[in-house]
Amino acid sequence: MVEGNINKPADPKNLTEGDKKHIPAIYVPKTIVAGEPFDVIVQVGLIPHVMEEKHHIEWIELYLNDTKIGKVELSLRKNKKAEATFTIKADKSLAGKESKLHALEHCNVHGTWEEFMTIKIS
């Protein structure tokens, strides 16, 4: 996990424009079956974050519970959007249980931001 400061909204019920541009949005399929692969899309911002030389997202990480799924380094040349897709194959031992997805992203100007999502694996 990332060491140091992780930015969070001061008031999660009243997000600022800056919050909306930096909080990772996590998208998962409606049905997740243990032992079968599924894709998780992490987009940076409820309002899409810019990908410009002076202000951009450098990387996105995803964890399932405490296990790191992966890290995607973003490039201004290759990435027009601040998003990444991760493929997960949840262990069969997670069937019938709630699990936690944890997404982190790093903005070159505004630092590291995170979001959590609880999922049910059948």
TrEMBL record:
The keyword Electron transport applies. Residues 16-115 form the Desulfoferrodoxin ferrous iron-binding domain. Pfam families: Desulfoferrodox (PF01880). GO terms for molecular function: iron ion binding; superoxide reductase activity. Its EC number is 1.15.1.2. The keyword Oxidoreductase applies. Keywords: Electron transport, Iron, Metal-binding, Oxidoreductase, Transport. Belongs to the desulfoferrodoxin family. This is Superoxide reductase. It comes from Methanosarcina lacustris Z-7289.
